[in-house]
Amino acid sequence: MARHLKEYIKVKPVIEFLIALSTFNVFSGPLKNRIKILLLIFCNIFFWYFLYTHLTNTINSQININLMWTLVMWIVLCDFFLIMISNVFKRKKFHLLMQNIQEVFDGDSEDEEDEEFEGVFQNHVNYSMKVFVFLNRWEIRLMTCLMIIAGIIFRVRKNYGLIIEINFITSDNILWRESQYILQSLLGSLTGFFGLSMNIGLTFMGLAIITELNILNDHMKLLNEKIKNQPNFLKKVIKKHCSVINNFNLFSEIFSETSFMVLFANCVSFLFGFSFLMNYSSDIINYMLIVAGTMLSLHVCILGEVISIKSENLSETLYQTNWYELSLKDQKMFLIILGMSQREYKLKALGMYDVNLYTFVQISKVAFSYCAVLYSLSQ
């Protein structure tokens, strides 16, 4: 078995779980995954209900930091549920794209015979797997740490306190009150895991698109050399390019609504986070909200940026080809590839807004500016 396939097979169970969670697929797959998904969803539903109960019972009272934290957590959790519901309707597209990614990672039998191509192919796949493993391991760990620290702060600082309310159990017992703080921290951690897991599943598919673009770019770089020995090499390049376009279109359809809701959650986190910082600048938990908002959307924006850059590189690589040395038949085929390479590969939220680092910076600037204006008016 090729080395790159070993790396992929190692993380495949994790990927299958992330995709199943994103699409709420509890009807197929390993029983362990289905139970984990159901438990995770039920816990988040309970958390949503407890937050909503506390929100409705305190909304008419004085606006304070406790109420605002309850509101931001409730809005973000609603956003996560909307992302999952949107993905449920795209379940077939998820499965089709995953099948196509599997075919890409399996490799081309002709490329496997070429040691140069095989080495480059393995490097690209292994790199994408390393990035995925890093994100999956450390982002979720970081989010869990943030939620645990937040739980401790909510317990220690009286003005934060409980943001959940379990109205069907009424007791003044100190043990029960402490148990609510533990439950609040646990449910908050599960919510962070829920949202990040869906994002990381999306990130894996984006990394697969980037890997395919890199492989196609390497084929184009060797066009001058390989066309002399392999007359059908141009056909192979066209085939790979068609595969890239097909997979990118599938990913764009999956990504469209999801990316908008991720950016919305990021915007909400920044709006509340900057507002909290202007009023409670000494509280570390408010900085943590900014970090959490960044974790939700930054890697999604980076994906869009990298895919756009890699697609532009295809045109530049193709322009360096000695097309004038090709036969008339190959020149016609070259024109087809040239036309395909000039297409823009840009991820868009709702098909309208570019998803890239510029968008992330703009959201940060708008959120900060809006909070600064409100703060100055309130003084």
Low-pLDDT runs of 5+ residues are none
The total of beta strands comes to 2
> What number is the mean pLDDT?
82
- Spatial arrangement of strands, main beta sheet: 1-2
Cα-to-Cα separation, first versus last residue: 67 Å
Q: Strand content of the residues, in percent?
A: under 5%
Q: Considering DSSP H and I runs of 4 or more, what fraction of the residues is helical?
A: over 70%
- Major sheet: 2 strands, antiparallel
* Domains, number: 1
Which of globular, elongated, flat, extended, rod-shaped describes the shape? elongated
What does this structure look like?
One of its GO terms (cellular component) is plasma membrane. InterPro entries: 7tm6_olfct_rcpt (IPR004117). It is found in: Cell membrane. The structure is a single chain. This protein is mostly helical and 379 residues long. The chain has one domain. It is built from 12 helices and 2 strands. The protein has a two-stranded antiparallel ribbon. The longest helix is centred in the middle third of the chain and has 48 residues. The radius of gyration is 24 Å and the shape is elongated.
Which key terms come to mind for this protein?
single chain; two-stranded antiparallel sheet; transmembrane; 379 residues; mainly alpha; sensory transduction; elongated; odorant binding; 2 strands; transmembrane helix; 12 helices
